[in-house]
Design a protein that fits this description.
Radius of gyration: 21 Å
Order of helices and strands: EHEEHEEHEHEEHEEEHHEEEEHEEEH
CATH topology of the largest domain: D-Amino Acid Oxidase, Chain A, domain 2
Helix content: 25-40%
Number of helices: 9
Distance between the termini: 38 Å
Oligomer: single chain
Bound molecules: flavin-adenine dinucleotide
Number of strands: 18
CATH class of the largest domain: Alpha Beta
CATH architecture of the largest domain: 2-Layer Sandwich
Shape: globular
Largest sheet: 8 strands, mixed
């Protein structure tokens, strides 16, 4: 059997399904294919929650995309009738020497977003449950917060199927030259364009091109049970937060949402990850770095029990920019990924950009292109 589409999107994570969404809105015949299912447990989009924030230092495109993406998430929430966004506010704090807060605020105000600057004295007053250092400052975004990621992607795919996107569950071996792909059921799928939105699998699918550019890195996420009688870790007292370290590492977390506990991850250790085969139980070194950070920053939670863990992977590019580019061997093959631990929120904007590239031939964003070879 053979089927013909305008676009075949391979990968039903957040990048692939928002690409399928806007391509379908543009009137195209779209097929969406995924090896393990939309927002499956191995995928980077498969976690329970993801932060949406505009603070990106002076990386304006990501701030703008975050500002533009939030209404699309809220629209999906409204259409689906399911809560997908918690407006907890997002607090990003950092050593003043990074100027992270100041740079982010300049960009957020320029693009029309809402935020405020908080000095260390204001931080200590507003968030006494967090221990800040004397030389720190922060940007607070009252309208940002947490997206319920897995649920949102799965609801979007259900909607896509209702709206005429065809879905296949199958593992694809790519044809970098843009010729038809055959899936294990025997069906041959041919399309005018192929979008490979395979997240951390991209380096496996295109090893010559991407093995040294995208590196999947293990990420262990913890949920701490708030001890009885301890206050300040539920919204609205506790916002979603990010610590931007000045030595190329960060930590982030969320207040106790839906009773899941206080979520946090510390990204100091950088172990390689294999999205197909890696064991997804937490490990001692990651528990230790999390505990050290909690003792330092949230001392009331120093002995709080771990009530849940998740192990995922970031698909980090060398520059930490996303990857959106044509395959160098074929005009009709697109590579979309490299979320680098910050891609989820921007799924709607990435999907819209991919659609404009395919339907309007808009110029490529230089920072998201493959490095010259
Ligand atoms: C722990 C953690 C926390 C994060 N926190 C945030 C955050 O707070 N805010 C934020 O914005 N971002 C965050 N991110 C990043 C964000 O989740 C990712 O950038 C984003 O989900 C990547 O989506 P994707 O669609 O590129 O990849 P994925 O979600 O991994 O989707 C790729 C899909 O491709 C499919 N696939 C792979 N190979 C094949 C094949 N051969 N054939 C068919 N299908 C295939 C897979 O099954 C998978 O479903 C975080 C990531 C992690 C891991």
């Amino acid at each position: 059997m053979s089927s013909r589409f305008d676009v075949a999107v391979i990968g039903a994570g957040v990048f692939g399904c928002w690409s399928a969404y806007w391509l379908r809105k543009a009137g195209l015949r779209v097929v969406l294919v995924d090896a393990y299912g939309p927002a499956n447990s191995r995928s980077s989009s498969g976690g329970e929650s993801r932060i949406t924030r505009m603070a990106y230092g002076d990386d304006e495109i990501y701030s703008r995309w975050a500002l533009n993406s939030l209404p699309a998430w809220l629209d999906l929430e409204r259409r689906s009738g399911h809560k997908l966004f918690h407006q907890t506010g997002v607090l990003t704090f950092s050593d003043d020497s990074t100027q992270w807060a100041q740079k982010s605020i300049a960009v957020i105000r320029r693009i029309g977003g809402e935020c405020e600057y908080l000095s260390v004295d204001e931080l200590a007053k507003r968030f006494p449950q967090v221990r800040f250092k004397q030389n720190e400052s922060a940007v607070f975004e009252p309208r940002s917060g947490a997206l319920l990621s897995r649920h949102a992607v799965q609801l979007l795919v259900e909607e896509l199927i209702r709206d005429g996107v065809e879905y296949r569950q199958a593992s694809i071996s790519p044809n970098p030259d843009g010729t038809a792909i055959t899936i294990p059921s025997g069906e041959t799928i041919s399309a005018a364009a192929y979008v490979y939105a395979c997240g951390p699998w991209l380096p496996k699918l295109f090893p010559d091109l991407l093995a040294s550019y995208i590196r999947p890195v293990r990420a262990e996420v913890f949920f701490l049970g708030i001890p009885a009688g301890i206050r300040g870790f539920d919204p609205p007292q506790m916002p979603t937060w990010i610590f931007m370290g000045n030595e190329n590492w960060d930590a982030y977390g969320m207040p106790n949402l839906a009773g899941r506990g206080f979520k946090l991850a510390v990204d100091l250790i950088q172990q390689p990850a294999d999205p197909d085969t890696m064991d997804r139980q937490s490990t001692t070194p990651y528990v230790k770095q999390m505990r050290d950070f909690v003792c330092e920053r949230f001392p009331q939670l120093a002995t709080a029990p771990i009530v849940e863990t998740r192990v995922c992977q970031y698909e980090n590019t060398l520059t930490h920019n996303y990857l959106v580019d044509r395959h160098p061997e074929s005009e009709s093959v697109w590579l979309v990924g490299g979320g680098s631990g910050h891609g989820f929120k921007n799924g709607p904007a990435i999907g819209a950009y991919v659609t404009d590239l395919i339907t309007k031939n808009v110029p490529l964003e230089a920072a998201m292109r493959l490095p010259a070879r």
